[in-house]
């Protein structure tokens, strides 16, 4: 039985990853500082003797006693409005946080995977994006704090691999959705579904011609798990290549929710990527992985989840702890 650490365990992806690792028979130590994560996402795991939890900010310090086989570094704010509100913490967890985790991995002789992102490609000039593309990122724009932190994270992870021989993996995660996303996290899917449920108009930023490719969370976690089992140290894209414009996406949500509200248009945020679609040739070849869940199926499951939440969740304006969190 493997003993693994998941940082960001109470977050959207981290919590689904914990579920999968427990189902695979691992002992899981979850770590989260709970600024964007929520204990509700892992409440069901506290009864499981194979799960334990530390409330801790890995940017400051990380220690886990006993043997460890693998660390998944998934802690980070991950939606544009989060990293605009807490830019310094976003930079810290992608630099100091990963440095601490790599130190722990080296000390324990454990493997380590980082959650990297399609944002390393910035506003891409190559389409779809293969792992060999170096990207088009504005380091000093509002998204730079996330994009450059993740790029640094890849660089330091590769350096620990080549210099110290740490057994590392780099997954580049494209837009992912599913149950446990925060309704108020600002990303397009919870934004549209939240608006439909509150009886508000759906807000498209820009003219809606920008594209994204949405992957259902179970597919993503399956790709992550397979990558952790491989011995591939270079970055691997995991995402669903089924590309759609944001306007078409809004129309799909209108149909799914049956809302009679309008679609309205607002300014496009600075440096918002115009197109995004993963080239998953490498994941198919190396991991024998491809996504299985169609957008129609995944959206239905996700909508049912949001509909089942208590009504007050719909009206939560901001995340509870941002104001009190020290910079
Ligand atoms: N978007 C939108 N309306 C919203 C929220 C987002 O039109 O209420 C757009 C956003 O400008 C971007 C796309 O939807 O073009 C995806 O945004 P998201 O924040 O989900 O993720 P990103 O891929 O930009 O990190």
Summary tags:
globular, 2 domains, 327 residues, alpha/beta, binds uridine-5'-diphosphate, UDP-galactose 4-epimerase, domain 1, two-stranded parallel sheet, Rossmann fold, 10 helices
Look up the CATH topology of the largest domain: Rossmann fold
- Helical residues, percent: 25-40%
Strand content bin: 15-25%
E-strand count: 13
Count the domains. 2
Which secondary-structure class do the elements indicate? alpha/beta
Main sheet specs: 7 strands, parallel
Q: Rough shape? A: globular
Biggest sheet, strands in spatial order?
A: 3-2-1-4-5-6-11
| Ligands and ions found | uridine-5'-diphosphate
- CATH architecture designation of the largest domain: 3-Layer(aba) Sandwich
> Count of DSSP helices?
10
Q: What is the average of the pLDDT values? A: 95
Element string (H = helix, E = strand): EHEEEHHEHEEHEEEHEEHEHHH
In whole angstroms, the N-to-C terminal distance is: 39 Å
Tell me about this structure:
It is a single chain. The chain is of the alpha/beta class and 327 residues long. It has 2 domains: 3-177 and 215-238, NAD(P)-binding Rossmann-like Domain (Rossmann fold, 3-Layer(aba) Sandwich), CATH 3.40.50.720; 188-212 and 242-272 and 293-318, UDP-galactose 4-epimerase, domain 1. The protein is built from 10 helices and 13 strands. The strands form 4 sheets. It has a 7-stranded parallel sheet with strand order 3-2-1-4-5-6-11, with helices on both faces. Strands 7-10 form a two-stranded parallel ribbon. The longest helix is centred in the N-terminal third of the chain and has 22 residues, at 87-108.
């Amino acid at each position: 039985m493997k003993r693994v650490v998941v940082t960001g365990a109470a977050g959207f992806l981290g919590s689904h990853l914990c579920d999968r690792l427990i189902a695979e028979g691992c002992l899981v130590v979850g770590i989260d500082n709970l600024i964007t994560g929520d204990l509700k996402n892992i409440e069901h795991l506290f009864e499981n003797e194979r799960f334990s939890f530390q409330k801790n900010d890995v940017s400051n310090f990380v220690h886990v006693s006993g043997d460890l086989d693998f660390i998944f570094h998934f802690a980070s704010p991950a939606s544009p409005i989060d990293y605009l509100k807490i830019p310094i913490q976003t930079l810290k967890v992608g630099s100091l946080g990963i440095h601490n985790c790599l130190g722990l991995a080296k000390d324990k002789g454990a493997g380590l995977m980082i959650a990297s992102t399609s944002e390393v490609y910035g506003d891409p000039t190559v389409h779809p994006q293969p792992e060999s593309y170096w990207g088009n990122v504005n380091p000093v724009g509002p998204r730079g704090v996330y994009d450059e932190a993740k790029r640094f994270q890849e660089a330091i992870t590769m350096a620990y691999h080549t210099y110290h021989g740490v057994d590392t993996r780099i997954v580049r995660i494209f837009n992912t959705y599913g149950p446990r996303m925060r309704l108020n996290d600002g990303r397009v899917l919870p934004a549209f579904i939240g608006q439909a449920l509150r009886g508000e108009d759906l807000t498209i930023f820009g003219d809606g011609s920008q594209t994204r490719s949405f992957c259902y969370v179970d597919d993503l976690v399956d790709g992550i798990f397979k990558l952790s089992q491989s011995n591939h140290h270079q970055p691997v894209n995991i995402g669903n290549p089924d590309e759609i414009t944001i306007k078409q996406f809004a129309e799909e949500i209108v149909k799914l929710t049956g809302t009679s509200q309008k679609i309205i248009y607002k300014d496009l945020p600075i440096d918002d990527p115009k197109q995004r679609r993963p080239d998953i040739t490498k994941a198919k070849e190396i991991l024998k992985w491809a996504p299985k869940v169609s957008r129609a199926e995944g959206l239905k499951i996700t909508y049912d989840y949001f509909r089942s939440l208590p009504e007050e969740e719909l009206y939560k304006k901001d995340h509870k702890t941002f104001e009190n969190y020290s910079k």
